[in-house]
Amino acid sequence: MESALITDPAGIGEIEDEWRALAELQGSAFVTPEWFRSWWDHRPASTSPLIATARHEDGSLAGVMPLVFDFARRPRMIRFAGASFGDRFGPVAREGDEGEVAVASMAALRRAELDRYTLVLNHVELESPWWRDLHGASATERAGIVQQRSEQPYIRLDGLDWEGYLASRSSSFRKKIRQRERKLQHQHQVEVRSATPESLQTDLSHFFTLHDRRWQGQSSLDAPGAKQFLNAFAAAAARRGWLRLRLLEVDGTPVAAFLGWRIGDRYAFYQSGFDPSWSEMSVGMVLLTRTIESALEEGASEFDMLLGTEAYKRRFQNASRDVFTVVLTKAMAPARLLVAAEAGARRWGRRLAERPGLNGTAHTLRRLLPT
To answer: What is the per-residue pLDDT across 353-370, written as a single tens digit (0 to 9) for each?
Structure first.
């Protein structure tokens, strides 16, 4: 494949439509041009774009690797754009083309004399061969270090309607789901509504308020620039018809919010929030239940709950996938020792997070780690 690097965001326009179409086939928001642009507009100043492109012999776009070069960190590194806020990354390509696109991308980095830098591949499926193809295509002898494992629960929806999905769950689950909503409706006026173009900014404000109340400073959205970036992406996703911003109102007041999107056949659950004073009424669960039902009505094939193994996700999931962060660094470089030490620190941090009252400390530790 013919490969090239786009190092000026203005060059995105030349490939944007083809790039978006490939991302929609994958059902992934995290590798769309909208994600890249939104992140780029709120990026740290110490980054530059390295969008690797690969083309077939007929000139059509085979794939994209939306990368950036972070030159302020030590070690300097190349990673996917917006990796700190996304949950799964990889080449944007048709199924079966990912490996060739990865190899072509490494060739483009090599020609620009950038392949000597550390590559941090956040949240990739370890069993997918493309990252090994990328590793093997480097002219530099590299070590591949698997830093951390994360689980992504999801719900297979193919062939199901709401009653069919409920029938696949336990009788206890079905009983609780129905009781929660009946109890709330018996005592209050309940409405679930979706954001409209006219209500988008107000509803996003409600979402952020409810999210902050729920997580109280222990969310990735508390990072500098995170909310501005997500606000920009939500607006772009709304223009594309992808956005699924839903609010549960009780007696006219928003008490729970869901932020996600539908891209291709995949309905994704990105973030949520609720007013803790309503926790006894399980308002978050009621909204999630209604949203899964809506995804089924839309004909989505998957309801992806993305990163996280919270107990409430486990109640709904019927499948899961594992993703890992893989670091490719020079085999004999000092950076390898740093990355290996960080892998150990992350393992320690996960054990720390399991201890009562120490989850906030573990969250702070993860933010300080260089990759």
So the answer is: 556 555 555 555 555 555
